[in-house]
Design goal:
Structural class of chain B: mainly alpha
Number of strands of chain B: 0
Helix content of chain B: 55-70%
Largest interface: A-B, 116 and 115 residues
Radius of gyration of chain B: 26 Å
Pfam family, one (chain A): BPD_transp_1
Distance between the termini of chain B: 25 Å
Shape of chain A: globular
InterPro entries (chain A): MetI-like, MetI-like_sf, UgpAE/MalFG_permease
Number of domains of chain A: 1
CATH architecture of the largest domain in chain B: Orthogonal Bundle
Organism (chain A): Promicromonospora umidemergens
Number of helices of chain A: 13
CATH architecture of chain A: Orthogonal Bundle
Number of domains of chain B: 2
Largest sheet of chain A: 2 strands, antiparallel
Mean pLDDT of chain B: 84
Protein name (chain A): Sugar ABC transporter permease
Low-confidence stretches of chain A: none
Strand order of the largest sheet of chain A: 1-2
CATH superfamily of chain A: MetI-like
Distance between the termini of chain A: 32 Å
Helix content of chain A: over 70%
Order of helices and strands of chain B: HHHHHHHHHHHHHH
Strand content of chain A: under 5%
Oligomer: heterodimer
Family (chain A): Belongs to the binding-protein-dependent transport system permease family.
Number of strands of chain A: 2
Radius of gyration of chain A: 23 Å
Strand content of chain B: under 5%
Number of helices of chain B: 14
CATH class of the largest domain in chain B: Mainly Alpha
Order of helices and strands of chain A: HEEHHHHHHHHHHHH
């Protein structure tokens, strides 16, 4: 106990910050999810689990949940495959490699909102530059374009493309770090034993990337599940609930409808979803056991 | 895998068919890669560069077009005339007070970074140097905050900040950004402190230096790269934060650029050239900062997850 008191001046401020801005709001959120709170913010008493019943009973709840699964699995899966390929390239030596590495970092440093806005503009009918490019190469017949950002399904699909794009840098860099820790002798030995490049990669290099891949996937799942800005920009102006995930729905309750009790209830659900995903993932893949 | 490794170190083994008479020791170095595959790598690299820079090139070319050109039904890939004055006129666009948004973004990011440093540095030092009861609990708490993101907590933060009266202030976002970047900062600095041999500290203590003097005079110069990485990472993350700012800041002038710019979307006539001009101004400095810590980014993100 005495040594904890001695440590307090050093770790106390960090604990205080985590307590006020992370732990306390979690408590407030759980409490609010069981209250009836008016739009002006007045607490009108406890309602038990009624908010949860309302949120889950909402007619679009299950489609939204399903779309959230598609969003997370699709984005994380494609990102992983793309990153494995990119990292393999960046691990090889060739003139200009440093330039390529720097280019890959750009979407990571840039504001996700701003990156998404360029794509949103590019897809606009008539004047959007991506749309116009697709017309020029003959993939789309009329310059009016498809109206990518007007339909929930296409807007959502493009949002997934952007999500993959902004997730690639972190994932690639993590896998690249993993590749650099693969001992050169194991690769050399495989070559001497007559294994070709592809075979060496799949049976020697890839198994050793397990740790890096697990960590990258875990952090990506959390980030992609919690992602708001891409969908907000890309599908936010589409009426209805056909392009929403749990996260955008929370913000619709919070901002458009000012129903903080329902927003809290859905946040609590999201909170548990994240915990379950992380727990299952850690159990199955055991990323924390490595290294 | 181990079998392969062993045969590598003991080439006389009979694991290979005897007919194979290629040279036994072949160095796996770059100079022996055929020129064809080097060219292929360079070409693929070029494609990667183009793909990753494309959105930002569109942004840049768009930022110097006129409103008429960027909204033309026959769009141009490159500006027909370069209108650099957009970078001056954009500040008085009616959608949002852009100059104030820049100030807000700067103040929030700078203060959050300073707060993170003030709070994380002592914690990282002490947990790396001393064993004490509750140390593991503390480190676990820090990892947990890396798993939680502000987006899922906004409804709780919103009510809490109303209750304590800091809703819609810079202070609210300074606290949020500091708290959610604390984990990265603690872990990267912790790993740098842990890499310094304890004997260095002990030698200084024998010479009569106190704990604080050991930290500032002996350790700080050695962990400097870790501090720079933590500072830049926190600054860039705060600079780009969106979800919490969207809900916690309602006065237009208080909002950071990430939130302010979304007001342009869905307008009857979006001034895309201004959106892109502001984006370029906001993106270029942080890209340069991020490139400076490129080599240490992964270490900081992985450290917390694998320890």
């Amino acid at each position: 106990m005495k040594d904890l008191l001695k440590a307090l001046p050093w770790i106390g401020p960090a604990v205080a910050l985590i307590a006020t801005v992370v732990l306390f709001p979690v408590g407030v959120m759980f409490w609010n999810s069981t209250r009836d709170i008016s739009q002006s913010g007045l607490d009108d008493g406890g309602v038990g689990l009624a908010n949860f019943a309302t949120v889950v009973g909402f007619q679009y709840f299950w489609p939204i949940l399903g779309r959230t699964v598609v969003w997370v699995v699709g984005v994380v899966g494609v990102t992983l495959l793309g990153s494995l390929a990119l990292a393999a390239l960046l691990d090889k030596s060739f003139p200009g490699r440093r330039l390529v590495r720097m280019a890959v970092i750009v979407p990571w440093a840039s504001s996700v909102v701003m990156t998404t806005m360029v794509v949103h503009y590019g897809l606009e009918p008539y004047f959007g530059i991506i749309n116009s490019f697709l017309v020029d190469v003959g993939l789309i017949a009329s310059p009016e374009g498809y109206g990518w950002t007007r339909h929930p399904v296409t807007a959502f699909a493009w949002a997934m493309v952007v999500a993959v794009f902004v997730s690639l840098p972190f994932t690639t860099y993590t896998i690249l770090a993993g590749l650099q820790s693969v001992p050169g002798e194991t690769v050399e030995a495989a070559r001497i034993d007559g294994a070709g490049g592809v075979r060496t990669y799949f049976s020697v290099v890839l198994p050793q990337l397990r740790g890096a891949v697990s960590v990258a996937v875990l952090i990506n799942i959390i980030n992609v599940f919690n992602s708001l800005p891409i969908l907000r920009v890309m599908t936010g102006s589409i009426p209805g609930y056909d392009a929403d995930t749990i996260m955008t729905m929370i913000f619709k309750y919070l901002q458009n409808q000012r129903q903080i009790d329902l927003a809290s209830a859905l946040s609590v659900i999201a909170f548990f979803v994240v915990i379950v995903i992380v727990a299952v993932y850690v159990r199955v893949v055991r990323p924390l056991k490595e290294v | 895998m181990t079998a392969l490794a062993e045969s590598g170190t003991a080439p006389r083994q009979t694991t290979r068919p005897p007919s194979d008479d290629r040279p036994r020791v072949r160095k796996y170095t770059a100079d022996q890669v055929p020129i064809g595959s080097v060219l292929l790598r360079m070409f693929t690299g070029l494609v990667v560069v183009v793909v990753f820079l494309l959105p930002y090139l569109i942004m840049f070319f768009g930022s110097v077009k006129t409103k008429a050109e960027i909204r033309s039904v026959d769009p141009t890939y490159f500006p027909t005339e370069w209108h650099w004055e957009n970078y001056v006129t954009m500040w008085s666009t009616p959608e949002t007070p852009l100059a104030q948004n820049v100030i807000s973004t700067l103040v929030i990011s700078l203060c959050a970074t300073l707060l993170v440093l003030a709070v994380a540095l002592p914690a990282a030092y002490y947990t790396a140097r001393f064993r004490f009861r509750g140390r593991l609990v503390f480190l676990f708490l820090v990892i947990v905050t890396q798993m939680i993101q502000p987006a899922v907590l906004t409804s709780g933060l919103f009510r809490e900040f109303i209750a304590i009266g800091i809703i819609d202030t810079w202070g609210a976002m300074i606290l949020v950004n500091a708290a959610f970047n604390l984990s990265f900062a603690v872990w990267i600095m912790h790993s740098f402190f842990a890499a310094i041999p304890k004997e260095v500290d002990e030698a200084a203590q024998i010479d009569g230096a106190g704990t604080l003097a050991v930290l500032t005079k002996i350790n700080l110069p050695l962990v400097w790269p870790g501090i720079v990485t933590a500072v830049i990472f926190t600054f860039v993350a705060s600079w780009n934060e969106f979800a919490a700012s969207l809900v916690l800041l309602s006065t237009p002038g208080n909002q950071p650029l990430s939130v302010a710019l979304t007001k342009f979307v869905g307008q009857y006539e979006t001034s895309w050239h201004y959106v892109f001009g502001v984006s370029i101004v906001a993106i270029v400095p942080v890209i340069i900062l991020f490139m400076a810590i490129e080599k240490r980014l992964v270490g900081g993100l992985m450290a917390g997850s694998v320890k």
